[in-house]
Design goal:
- The complex is a heterodimer.
- By secondary structure, chain A is α/β, with parallel strands linked by helices.
- Chain A is globular and about 70 Å long.
- The longest helix of chain A has 21 residues.
- The mean pLDDT of chain A is about 95.
- Helices cover about 40% and strands about 15% of the residues of chain A.
- In chain A, strands 1-7-6-5-4-2-3 form a seven-stranded mixed sheet, with helices on both faces. In chain A, strands 8-9-11-10 form a four-stranded antiparallel sheet.
- Chain B is of the alpha+beta class.
- Helix content of chain B is about 35%, strand content about 25%.
- Chain B has seven helices and eight strands; from the N terminus they run H-E-E-E-H-H-H-H-H-E-E-E-E-H-E.
- The longest helix of chain B has 21 residues.
- The two termini of chain B are about 25 Å apart.
- Classes of the chains: A alpha/beta, B alpha+beta.
- At the A-B interface, helix 11 and helix 13 of A face helix 1, strand 2, strand 3 and helix 2 of B.
Chain lengths: ~375, ~210
Amino acid sequence: MDNSATTCVLPDVVREMLPYYTKKYGNPSSLHYLGEEAENAITKARTTIAKAINASASEIIFTGSATEANNIAIYGIALAGKKNGKTHLITSAIEHSAALNPMKRLEKQGFELTILPVDSEGFIDTTRLENAINEKTALVSIIHANHEIGTIQNLREIGKICREKGVPFHTDSAQGFTKTELDVKAQNIDMVTLNSHKIHGPKGVGALYIRSGIKLEKVFDGGPQEFDIRPGTENVPAIVGFAKAVEIGMRDYEQNTAHMRSLRNMLIDGLLSIENTHLNGPKGKNMDKRLPNNANITFKYIEGEAIVLSLSMHGICVSTGSACSSHALQPSHILTAIGLRHEDAHGSIRYSLSRFNTKEEVEYVIEKTRAVVEKLRKISAFVPQ
Amino acid sequence: MAMQYTKKVLEHFRHPRNVGEIKNPDGVATEGSPLCGDMLTVYLKVDPKTHKVKKMKFKSYGCASNIATASVISEKAIGRTIEELEKMDYLTAARELGGLPPVKVHCSVLAVNALKAAIRDYKLKQGLISKEETPLTHDAVMNELAKVINPEIGISIVRLKMVRNVKIGKDGTVAVYISLGNTDEKFAENISEEVEEHVRKIPGVKKVRVAIRK
């Protein structure tokens, strides 16, 4: 149940990719038939993905990952803006590090960075956003759907404000794409980052939508591939796989999201029936603004890494926002941004479903979680008397 | 990121020894805090004649390392005299477990600290030591700082010569100046928190200020 970390690649996707490794292995830049064949495959993939978000094919570039797409978008727009005296960036307190860290680095290099706070469910205040934009703002980058707590921002509203003020709007949709609405025209989005391996596509490829007319400063130099923005020989098999995963994801959108939503709700209800737990992120009337596959629960009085390892021993994969399991020994900045105390952040677990999870699996997970929590609470020094 | 735990750590995590409480313990202490995700309470029963630890129980809040280090220390403590245990080296738990990842070495320090604090509590209760305030000295601060582990490397910040300066004010304010050197600055906050937590415990300390720079 850790599908927000990565997903299995669909067999149809693998089948689609294989010929591009052994038979149709041309370099798309080559002039001969092998190259042309590879280039056509990329063009077809580009079109498929563009259609899925209501964009044109020429507005899609392929990258090596969603993180790379974020970097190209953020550095590209910021450095272009700097040339025109625009040195202000706006983002949210719950960004993925793949978007936050580039902006933090730009801040060290002299950019002014406004980090919009979020409410207890992870939503930004769009009025605050509107007030934060000034004549020096080069970019607004707000994550579409949060990877930890599932909050889906109101892109339509954010896009409208940015378009009115003439400020480029980028969104990281690694988790949102094919799980909730993403329409670049309706939502006035200028750039969007897309992820392959979170939607049953292969790793090693990502995509960035760049609205025609948006000028990016190049961050990489080399050949002229991907409209002169992302040099390097294209990962044709992965690109083909990505597009196939998107095609299947969009085809099965209604049924997948309904299935995951129903299991998610069942999982949340079951886990919350354990004492001293609470749900993190959108709840109650805002459940429709929560990723259909995400559940994030705090189990009070016990620690996340211990929970994750214990569940792993029962064949269950989840992740945690605990400090002990993070690189820098700090609790997840997303959980602290929504106001969780450190000890509650340490005890938080993210369960993220896929289209393949079943009711039986959810029941098993609830049962084993209950057992693990009971065992760890018996050991805990922190259970109040 | 996978934790690379040894088999022994996982074994002690799955089946921790001596978990529980002792009613009317001879010595008891809690180290760490839920704020930093690491807490341990140690309960002791000590033979007053031989000073041997008859029983040790613990309750812990924390990760797999936290539980495993407490478990392995409890095995080492039972049957030994408190005088022997007072000399226990802070990396004992890490060694007994066959090693810990650098970011987890501080759990070994916590386990040994908690045991020693429980022994101190026993001695106070028995009147073997008095509660006189030890003067707030540079040495007292350095002793506490020696227990702060650099999580990137797994070695004490004092041994790594990261402590640039310590200033003790007459009003009980302690200022600690740390140099990160080559350590990744993402660990700055954690090191600062650990320094503050350890130095705050020294009797006479009213306030701790930590300044970290490259």
